[in-house]
Amino acid sequence: MPDGTTDGEERPLLSGAEHVESRDVSEEMRNCFLDYAMSVIISRALPDVRDGLKPSQRRILYSMHELGLAPNRKHLKCAKIVGETMGNYHPHGDQAIYPTLVHMAQPWAMRDPLIDGQGNFGSVEGDPPAAMRYTEARLTHLGSLLMADMDKETVDFVPNYDETRTEPVVFPAAFPNLLVNGSTGIAVGMATNIPPHNLGELVEGVCALIDNPALTPEELLKFVRGPDFPTGGIVVGHDGIRNYFLTGKGSIRLRAHLHVEENRNGRSTLIVDEIPFNVNRATLVERIGDLITEKLIDATDVRDESDENTRVVIELRRDAVPKVVENNLYRLTPLETIFAVNSLAIDGGRPRTLNLKEMLLCYLEHRREVVLRRSRYELRKAEERAEILEGYLVALANLDEFLRVIRGASNREAARIELGGYEFTREQVEAFGIVVRHAERLENGRYVLSDAQLDAILDLRLYQLTGLEREKILDEYRKLMDRARELEGILGSETQVLALIRAELLEVAAKRATPRRTEIVPAEGEIAFEDLVARESVVITLTHKGYIKRTGLANYRVQRRGGRGVIGMVAQGGERTEENDFVEHLFTASTHDHLIFFTTAGRAYVERVYEIPEMARAAKGRSIANVLELAPDEEIAALLRVGASSAEGAAWDRPGFLFFCTALGQVKKTPLSEFAHMRKKGIRAISISEGDRLIDVKFTTGDREVVLITKRGLSIRFSEEEVRSMGRIAAGVRGIRLEREDRVVAAAVVDPAATLLVAGSNGLGKRTDFDEYRRQGRGGKGVITMKMTKRTGEVVAALAVVDEDELMLLTQKGLTVRMPVRGIRRVGRNTQGVRLLQLDQGDRLISVARVIPEQEEEGEEGLLA
């Protein structure tokens, strides 16, 4: 046969090394589908738990980073960004890339947008964005923070699709973006739906985990209250939040925020201020209009008066009941929706359903790896630069000899060889200012110049040989050595790594965190514990040795000025309080209020009033160490009541400042919102210098005037506008210039309708109009506020009062007197005052506090020191 075969032989189908293998079609399809499914799951639909991004989002942001679109740079056309992304990293078409870019720039879709868009990026009504040739974009500050330190080998890079360049596998992520902005995605056989949360709360949660890794997901609820949607709204019920925090899955009932207004003709209108997340406002208005047409709700008209803020007006019928209409709207329209949470993310290359603690721990471990890799990189760079500077120092120390060698050499290589033959002892190089940190820098116990140092020496410019330049080189070298030691300390200490992570997170939160937008209220049938606590006025007392209690205000009877008083506290054995322990702080509040405890060390702790142990007036109290987690050297310096504004807690977001004063006259004001996220172990409220201590904290509006009073009877009045707003960790500025041995004992906020009450240790006191205290500049010596004599003793207390106020006076031996302010005579500034109470031999007045009137307690308004 022509092909070499004979009749009857089977002809092979293929020749050479080719091979045919029989496969089952169903098995092959199954394997191919699994490969496809995993590709969709890992590389398309699900976010990475570390930076919270899908590959398409990460590639867009990285392309913008490479284009230099920092927050302080001008915007660039989105078409250019999409083109760069598609051509370099994501070859899937602009119709897949541009919508992803738009989504990351929409403030109603992202809790904290990662892209700053300019132009038409759509609307909450569902309007599409303009074409990418018309819109422009750049990174936001948070978008840029995701990639901070990426150039310091903090993350791995892999080749792109055509292996012409590399792209990061994950971003360093300076904040927990997965929980901040949430994520939604549908993969093959699985889906994720993670709600957004508040950045400040999440940072507090991570810091709490750093402090106590044994915290349970249930305990983390104290720091991360729940989802915080960009469109606001109201989450109804805590059970859904608790379920997904504990298990990774749960359902949240989300409602719009509505209120009722009366129009001119006396009819009621329902106003929709905030709509649920992912609800189309135009569709919502259309649906309400259909219900009105079908007469399913008692309304006559609906109008969308929204601008950048939502305002949908629903006109009600004259006889309509607003609450009934509101409930029908919740039932029949998307004004109430269900957000089904499924916290599914990629962890270690595999999809996992994670609860709150697991997500925070994954992020924390990622940041730990980033900090370690960054520290190694910076240490290596510091040592490389230090090596060059060491070469400069050697050359400058042997300048004449090295210049002779260089001038006499025939070429650069000859000079390089001859200089490389120089050897120096350890003592010699240390005399040059060099620190020999590693033994490998010495060859046979001698210091020899490296190739890099020789090249640097030969490249020295003449101006670098001057004495001034030598000092600059030496100064830079010393700073590098200090930095290298600091980095080695970080690399060798897990505690320092975690402390650095915490400090960086707190810095991000201080600059970029915003107040909570979504309100969380109990569902019908859910009873908050505080709802079971009766609202009543109580007296909080704290002794010098740290025993605290609350006692009903009714247990203290009102007495006239100059009375003998009643025993307010006795020792545990039934006897009066020991002379070495006495009541040092007194505070009146409602059981539903919050108390902020400020310590002499400048830290702040928060506790609900009803959580303070309730005891009889004569009881000693419970140790403050059993109530607050104080450090061993901390003592309570001041207490502040924050009135509860809702079932959800204190009114932390109201405008205002906390004004701090220390014994050495330092003052500072910090926004109240800085203290919205307290931890059980407390937070830093003010930095205190050595030898100083915090003595008072007041709530102010930021534009008031304050008076500082010293124990020697001096005072100074100045505007708090002279004290700029500062963060929690700031130390403040000088408020008053003190004489030797003098100390500030109190601070008061000026109130034209009030008077300044000043009390001496011997029981004398007086009221003086604030007008008698002229306004001075901050930092002066002040004027006399009480004429000090042996009869008055040193000033122990001062506060602003009005005629309707009542006071509680406490002595060192535990006597208490409750008396009206009206009975204390007004006198001039430079006087001694009148007798407030009769003191026993050896007793002295140590505290004066204002009693909160009952009607003020019932109103639950204001913050009172």
From TrEMBL:
Annotated CDD domains:
TOP4c (cd00187)
What SUPFAM superfamilies does this protein's entry cite?
Answer: GyrA/ParC C-terminal domain-like, Type II DNA topoisomerase
UniProt keyword annotation of Nucleotide-binding present: yes
Disordered: annotated span: 1-22
Which example biological process does GO assign this protein? DNA topological change
Q: Where is this motif: GyrA-box?
A: 559-565
- The record's EC number reads 5.6.2.2
> Which segments show compositional bias classed as Basic and acidic residues?
8-22
This enzyme catalyses: ATP-dependent breakage, passage and rejoining of double-stranded DNA
**SMART domains the UniProt entry points to:** TOP4c
Single Gene Ontology MF annotation: DNA negative supercoiling activity
| Residues of the active site | 134 (o-(5'-phospho-dna)-tyrosine intermediate)
Localization, UniProt:
Cytoplasm
What keywords is this UniProt entry annotated with?
A: ATP-binding, Cytoplasm, DNA-binding, Isomerase, Nucleotide-binding, Topoisomerase
Residue ranges of every copy of the Topo IIA-type catalytic domain listed in the record: 46-532
Determine the domain of life of the protein's source: Bacteria
Which family is it part of?
Belongs to the type II topoisomerase GyrA/ParC subunit family.
What role is this protein assigned? Answer: A type II topoisomerase that negatively supercoils closed circular double-stranded (ds) DNA in an ATP-dependent manner to modulate DNA topology and maintain chromosomes in an underwound state. Negative supercoiling favors strand separation, and DNA replication, transcription, recombination and repair, all of which involve strand separation. Also able to catalyze the interconversion of other topological isomers of dsDNA rings, including catenanes and knotted rings. Type II topoisomerases break and join 2 DNA strands simultaneously in an ATP-dependent manner.
Any remaining note in the record?
Few gyrases are as efficient as E.coli at forming negative supercoils. Not all organisms have 2 type II topoisomerases; in organisms with a single type II topoisomerase this enzyme also has to decatenate newly replicated chromosomes.
Entry protein name: DNA gyrase subunit A
What is the scientific name of the source organism? Answer: Methylacidimicrobium cyclopophantes
Q: Which gene encodes it?
A: gyrA
